[in-house]
């Protein structure tokens, strides 16, 4: 494990208040491996997606109220079918008065992201996701991940999906990885570039 990988494991240990033995940490290659390892230490087996459903319904209702979408939105639909302007960042108030923001979509043709895109091209980094391929579920999970500190009480985590959201959030925040890049099957070293 490289220094970045060790740092990432330490951040997760600190957040979840667990200790992952070195031998176990050496077996963590993918995001899903890390989620499963944390779940094992917390004795969590449920994979319900209550948080995803709550945020999904809130965002869809918000977009319908703004007349931004006018058709039924299935969580497995491509997000581009329903949100035509990926550069618009939405701020949504959840029922418990928490304001969350949706992620900024990286496209090579928006000005802010365009500058970042040019910089990232200089250091040979380009995103591996394509806006048109992202599902509504991807968008909702990314939204949850960038707001994980507000949405999830660390002492009350009950599902593997909540662990996954926190892993996405911590990895994006501390390692600078784009939240849309973080998927269960992604490897930390090869796919996310974490040494």
Biggest sheet, open or closed, and with what strands and sense? 2 strands, antiparallel
Low-confidence stretches: 109-114
Encode the helix/strand succession as letters. Answer: HHHHEEHHHH
Helical segment count: 8
Terminal CA distance reads 7 Å
Strand content: under 5%
Rounded to the nearest angstrom, the radius of gyration is 17 Å
Helicity level: 40-55%
What is the number of independent domains? 1
Spatial ordering of strands, largest sheet: 1-2
Mean of pLDDT: 85
Outline: globular
User: What's the count of strands?
Assistant: 2
Name the quaternary structure: single chain
Secondary-structure-derived class: mainly alpha
Layout of helices and strands:
Blueprint lengths: L2 H14 L5 H4 L5 H12 L7 H16 L25 E3 L5 E3 L9 H12 L13 H11 L1 H4 L8 H16 L20
Antiparallel strand pairs: 1-2
Helix pairs in contact: 1-8, 3-8, 4-6, 6-8
Gist of the model:
By secondary structure, this protein is mainly alpha-helical.
């Amino acid at each position: 494990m490289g220094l970045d990988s060790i740092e990432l494991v330490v951040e997760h240990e600190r957040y979840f208040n667990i200790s992952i033995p070195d031998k176990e940490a050496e077996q963590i290659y993918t995001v899903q491996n890390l989620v499963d390892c944390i779940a094992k230490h917390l004795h969590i087996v449920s994979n319900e997606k209550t948080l995803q459903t709550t945020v999904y319904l809130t965002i869809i209702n918000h977009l319908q109220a703004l007349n931004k979408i006018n058709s039924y939105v299935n969580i497995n639909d491509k997000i581009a079918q329903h949100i035509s302007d990926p550069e618009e960042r939405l701020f949504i108030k959840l029922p418990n008065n928490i304001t969350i923001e949706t992620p900024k979509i990286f496209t090579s043709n928006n000005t802010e992201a365009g500058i970042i895109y040019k910089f990232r091209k200089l250091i040979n980094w380009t995103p591996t996701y394509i806006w048109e391929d992202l599902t509504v579920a991807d968008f909702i999970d990314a939204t949850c991940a960038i707001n994980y500190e507000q949405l999830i009480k660390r002492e009350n985590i009950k599902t593997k999906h909540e662990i996954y959201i926190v892993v996405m959030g911590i990895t994006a925040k501390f390692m600078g990885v784009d939240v849309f890049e973080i998927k269960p099957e992604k490897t930390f070293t090869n796919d996310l570039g974490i040494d």
